[in-house]
TrEMBL record:
Domain (Transposase IS204/IS1001/IS1096/IS1165 DDE): residue spans on this chain: 2-91
Annotated protein name in UniProt: Transposase
Family matches, as Pfam families: DDE_Tnp_ISL3 (PF01610)
Source superkingdom: Bacteria
Length: 138
């Protein structure tokens, strides 16, 4: 089992491809390119590959399919979690109202500034209002 991924030797200019053993986390090999034909030729030098983890790159998917059509391709851990997070966020945003009201007593000034800082990073509007008979109106 191996993972292939790209890396930058000079950001936005020069990239390479690295192959890592999934079990030992050690680098197996590297090439100074991520071009399709270079990756295909490189992958063919490893005839025993049966399971290859990769990012979402279509270029890598095609190169793997061409070099090892029998190999199983899986998404790497980072991209699995990224896709899961993105899709969960979308589902939650559809499920919950865009405005969320949280009942609260009057907050002391130091707590309000902490809350304002948190609110800046939320993907929805957060409104704090004083509870009326245990219920709030948004």
């Amino acid at each position: 089992m191996v993972c292939i991924d790209d890396f930058a030797t000079k950001k936005r200019e020069t990239y390479g491809t690295v192959m890592v053993d999934i079990d030992t986390h050690r680098i197996i090999d590297m090439i100074p390119s991520r071009e399709h034909q270079d990756v295909v030729a490189w992958l063919k030098t490893f005839p025993n590959l049966t399971l290859i983890s990769r990012d979402g790159s279509i270029s890598y998917a095609k190169a793997i399919k061409e070099a090892h059509p029998q190999a199983t391709q899986v998404s790497d851990r980072f991209h699995l979690l990224q896709n899961l997070t993105t899709n969960c966020k979308k589902a939650l945003m559809k499920y919950f109202k865009s405005k969320v009201a949280i009942p609260a007593e009057e907050l002391p000034p130091e707590k309000r500034s902490e809350l304002d800082e948190i609110k800046e990073h939320l993907p929805f509007d957060l409104k704090i209002e004083k509870a009326t008979n245990g219920l709030t109106k948004a």
